[in-house]
Here is the input.
Amino acid sequence: MKVLVVEDTATTAAVLVRHLEALGFDAIVAKNGEDGVDAFVRERPDIVLLDILLPGIDGIEVARRIRAQERDGEWTPVIYLSAKNDDAAIEAGLSAGGDDYLTKPISPVVLTAKLRAMQRLAQAQKSLLLLTQRLDEANRRLQEMVHVDGLTGVANRRAFDARLSEEWRRCARLEKPLTLLLFDIDYFKRYNDSRGHLGGDDALKRVAQALSGALQRPGDLLARYGGEEFAAVLPEVDDEGGKIVAERMRAAVAALRIPHPDSPIGRSITVSVGGASALPGKTARVDSPAVLLDLADRALYRAKAAGRNRAVV
Ligand code: GH3
Ligand code: MG
Ligand code: MG
Ligand code: MG
Ligand code: MG
Here is the structure.
């Protein structure tokens, strides 16, 4: 326990220090208000004993500055020790952020009891702060679990579906097009059969990174849509733009050159891509994200049928 004593009268300060040390506390003394605030910032004491009549800024101003220095959720008990015994001084001191007010001459018995009481309150406050921090951290992890795919670290299907509806509505409002791309790894069952499931998982991570790395706009989103299927939503992109992005993403996966000797179409892992575009609210046949997904799925099927490792948008 570290106690900061802000007291300009040397004899009073000495008596307080002796008393505090007898109780087993560490005492630091500041002889005026400015030094008191500096010492508070530097030492971060557990309790402050604060005289009011000081040279320079008074104790009430010191209390105000101490409160302003504290970080969110932090609280350091401040007890005034003052010769001023009028209602106005007590009211002003506590309003400025002090927690208790003892009048001089100080009774050592009362001071000890007050210090112990403040210690208990400060401990409770610290536990509360710790609990809040743990809750924040748990909440952050929960949010991540809800939105992020655990294996690949890209968005999961839930996040993708939410984003797709959101972008659908936004693009409808702005009268902008929207493109959806679906990716499916070619002959991945055979890859798993030869490399094992862990080898397959490792390839999935690398493919996810390549696909997401090939996206360029901050509004684009890549998600793991199913086992070895990925999806990308490209807001404000029409079918011409969609073709270009799809081809770039297909090429990024091929460029990984992950060996796949059992693939009938080459020696490395490739993806097939199906894409569809619409002007939400304007394209008559495509009146929902579900229809857009279905169109992209059909395009993917055609990419597979046409020989794989290609994009049909
Ligand atoms: P193609 O798509 O070219 O028609 O052939 P394919 O063999 O890839 O066929 P399909 O897309 O139907 O295969 C899905 C396979 O992907 C099944 C399974 O072996 C593998 N797979 C799906 N999810 C996972 C996963 O989470 N981890 C691993 N390692 N493999 C997965
Ligand atoms: Mg004084
Ligand atoms: Mg598949
Ligand atoms: Mg299939
Ligand atoms: Mg596949």
Observations:
- Residues 69 and 206 are 47 Å apart (CA to CA).
- The beta strands are 2-6, 26-30, 47-50, 78-82, 100-103, 178-185, 221-224, 229-235, 271-278, 311-312.
- The radius of gyration is 34 Å.
- Residues 8-9, 51, 53-54 surround magnesium ion (ligand 2) (CB under 6 Å).
